[in-house]
Amino acid sequence: MSQTGQAGLLWVTVIDLLSQQKFEEALQTAQDVQEKSQEIGIKATEASAATCRAVAEHCQRNSQVLEVLRQLGATWGETALLIVGSAGEASGPWAVAAQNLAQAGSSDVQRLSTELGLCWTETMEPRTASHLTSEVPLQEGELRRIAETGGPLRAALAVKELGRREEAIQSAAAAVKAFRDQGNSEGEATALLCKSGAHLGADNMAALQAANHALKNFRELGHIIGQAAALHAVAKAQLAKRNPDDALNRAAESLRHGACGHNKHLWR
Predict the structure, then answer these.
(1) Residue 146: predicted pLDDT
(2) Matching InterPro entries, A to Z (predicted)?
(3) Which of 12, 172, 213, 243 could bond to 238 as cystine, CB 3.0-4.6 Å?
(4) Sequence ranges of the domains in the chain
(5) Which top CATH class is 140-257?
(6) Measured between alpha carbons, how far is residue 123 from residues 28, 107, 215, 265 in Å?
(7) CA 231 to CA 253: how far, in whole Å?
């Protein structure tokens, strides 16, 4: 079983124990897995266990949060985001969950979420609970404003959405260089993803090269969300190059890496 699969299984196990009000058993299970994962260096299960511990400790004080999480069908990755992030512009059940879990702060969850990229977005803006709700696409006027006033990465994403390919490629290349000069590997990999998307459909080999470069960077960082996004970009480039078998393999790998349950939202 993959690391993310094991992390998901632990989450299901702990939630089941909490639903039976077996708080001590849930806490002990999560603590044992966290300590073992830290010892052998498996970050995904360590992060899942830290999240489970924070939820179990909070449920002892406030049982309402468990019911909210179960109604939402929240994964451990989504729950980690609710713990370390803010409600943002979210409303409804996700906002309620974020408000409840704001008091379950955990330095371990914060640290591991950052290392694994759980709060990462393709605009390099921190993910909030609003990313877990339905997203309303930006209108053309807002995209034009971002293209004119945003930094290189956001501008590249905006002009790509507007269909201005050459501008998107140039802006993405500028963003890659800027992040590289700063020594920001996460930013460089993110900009490479944008560059891949800008090339896709016109120069599919360039799209594949940029996606593979992004994947290499994200792997070196241990950034599982970025890896999932990069693998998806590789799959799209392989499909565009008419390599369906390679595309399917990469798509399946992307799904395994994204098993902590994040959706892609580019603009919030």
Answers:
(1) 72
(2) TPR-like_helical_dom_sf
(3) 243
(4) 3-132, 140-257
(5) mainly alpha
(6) 38, 25, 17, 9
(7) 7
